[in-house]
User: Which sequence fits this backbone?
């Protein structure tokens, strides 16, 4: 089964996946990607509000980017 690697940028903090995960189809790694981005936003303990940007790219075993996704999260209190 082919391995895919998720490189993540969370507000300028980049993580380069060296291990990868096996997925049997593009729809499987896409599903993982679209659930990962909101989870990152929810777990961002350093966020004090405002705009935060999250993105990821998925590479195949040849290091070719085969998928990208991004999420912008903006929140603010109003008086």
Assistant:
């Amino acid at each position: 089964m082919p391995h895919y690697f998720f490189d993540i940028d969370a507000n300028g903090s980049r993580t380069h996946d060296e291990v990868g995960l096996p997925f049997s189809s593009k729809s499987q790694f896409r599903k993982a990607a679209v659930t990962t981005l909101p989870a990152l936003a929810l777990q961002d303990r350093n966020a004090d509000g405002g705009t935060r940007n999250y993105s990821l790219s998925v590479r195949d075993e040849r290091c070719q980017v085969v998928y990208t996704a991004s999420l912008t999260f903006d929140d603010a209190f109003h008086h």
Summary: The helical segments are 26-43.
